[in-house]
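call fold(seq) -> tokens
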Amino acid sequence: MTEVTGLRIDAKFSPQGRSWVDVRDASVDIDSSKLFEGVWFFDHLESVRTGPNGSESSQPIFEGWSLLSAIASITSNVRLGLMVSCLQYRPLGVLAKIVSTIDNITGGRVDLGLGAGNNANEAKAFGIQFPSLSDRIAILAESCEALKLLFSTDQSVSYSGNFVKIENAKNNPAPINREIPFFIGGKGEVRMFKVIAEHADFWNYSNGTPEEFSQKYSKLGSRSKELSIDRRLPRASVQVQVNPSDLDGPTNLANSYIKAGASHILLYAVPSFESVEGIKIVAERLRQ
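ret:
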């Protein structure tokens, strides 16, 4: 597992309702600022109602991994990822190839956000199968195991689970470092926390309060001990929305999460000049 220490601050942008030029300029600005270690987007095929520019009305939205590949070619410093990538949207072997390709483009700067998926209507609209929650969590667990195999070598590997199967698959070129950090999102304290405790480098938390976060993180530690999992507890990653008209609120909220145990903060904003300037100020305050 990749060992990381200290407070990490990243930017997350909503890839909907804005132009490619907006997304490009915001990402390049963050890359050159030296205040952030990473840039993230989300993984949806239709625009969403939540987030910093969520709307009930349909908005244009970029496909996540295609967008990330473009950002990879114009940045030099920040790590890149989707928080989180929906496993239902791409065959697992294809996802492994996409991740490894972008990792090679960046010289080893890719992080992999993973989730069980939560938007059945979106999947149906695009003709994608969307299994039950129980099956999606099982697919997530098997996918983590298979992806680690595919990332570890450029030679042929096979994996046979109940849902995920690969046969003599050769992921060549493999990721630069033969591994990719896993960020897994989820709050379920039984099945999801088992997957997170077994496979995640970071556990991502969103849409809650510092109090709930603290309770959940404690329960993740208890779940890991209950399962006798012999590995370091995943670091805690939290998303905090930032509106440029109010920077005190997200600063105070992020500090509350840090005090409760978070060591990775994603400042989640619209990719615009005003928002980028705002999250820079919040990042500077958190660094202090």
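The chain has a mean pLDDT of 95.
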